[in-house]
Design a protein that fits this description.
With 68 residues, the chain is α+β, with helices and mostly antiparallel strands. The protein has 1 helix and 4 strands. The longest helix is centred in the middle third of the chain and has 11 residues. The N and C termini lie close together (11 Å).
């Protein structure tokens, strides 16, 4: 659930089966929520941190999509 800012109030995203067991079309997950938050707060999606092994790690995965 998103609230505040410029998010449209009362908006439902996506579809589920009749019993709401699984997504009917275009499912999204945590990586898409992260991409949406980064987009909303205008944070560069290419932002990265260096892990303990010295490798760069992106906060937003390359295949994540903005859902709002």
């Amino acid at each position: 659930m998103f609230s505040g800012g410029d998010f449209e109030m009362g908006r439902a995203i996506g579809e589920s089966t009749a019993k709401a067991e699984t997504p009917k079309s275009d499912p999204f997950g945590p990586k898409d929520v992260t991409a949406t938050l980064f987009s909303h707060f205008e944070i560069d999606p290419q932002l990265q941190k260096i892990d303990f092994a010295g490798r760069p790690r992106y906060f937003v995965e390359s295949d994540a999509k903005v859902i709002l």
